[in-house]
Amino acid sequence: MAKIQKEMLITDALGMDTGLAAVMQSHGLGCFGCPSSRGKSLEMAAQNHGANIDALVSDMNAFLENK
């Protein structure tokens, strides 16, 4: 199974499972609906929103593993 990496683009991560949007929202990231998110990495988005990237990636991967 593919893993989420902090360097991934938001759209690539959501392409793995759209349910990851809820995980992103739980970390304060609502940018998955923003047109500029197409070129943003998860790390950049987390930095812009003051989120902990390591916790975000961990939770996103846990979500995928528990499906």
Protein topology:
Blueprint: H1 10-16, H2 20-26, H3 42-49, H4 53-65
Can you walk me through this structure?
With 67 residues, the chain is an all-alpha fold. The N and C termini lie close together (11 Å). It has a single domain (10-65), classed as SP0561-like (Orthogonal Bundle), CATH 1.10.3910.10. It is built from four helices and no strands. The mean pLDDT is 91.
List the keywords:
mainly alpha; about 70 residues; SP0561-like; 4 helices; about 50% helix
How would you summarize this macromolecular structure in one to three sentences?
The protein is an all-alpha fold and 67 residues long. It has four helices and no strands. The protein has helices at residues 10-16, 20-26, 42-49, 53-65.
Kindly state the number of beta strands. 0
CATH class: Mainly Alpha
- Alpha carbon gyration radius: 10 Å
The largest β sheet comes out as: none
What helical percentage do the residues reach? Answer: 40-55%
Structurally, the number of domains stands at 1
Identify the overall geometry. globular
Give the end-to-end Cα distance, rounded to a whole number of Å. 11 Å
Q: With helices defined by DSSP (H or I, 4 residues minimum), what is the helix count?
A: 4
The average pLDDT score comes to: 91
- CATH fold-level topology: SP0561-like
CATH architecture: Orthogonal Bundle
Class from secondary-structure proportions: mainly alpha
- In CATH, the homologous superfamily goes by the name SP0561-like
Element string (H = helix, E = strand): HHHH
β-strand amount? under 5%
Give unreliable regions as ranges. none
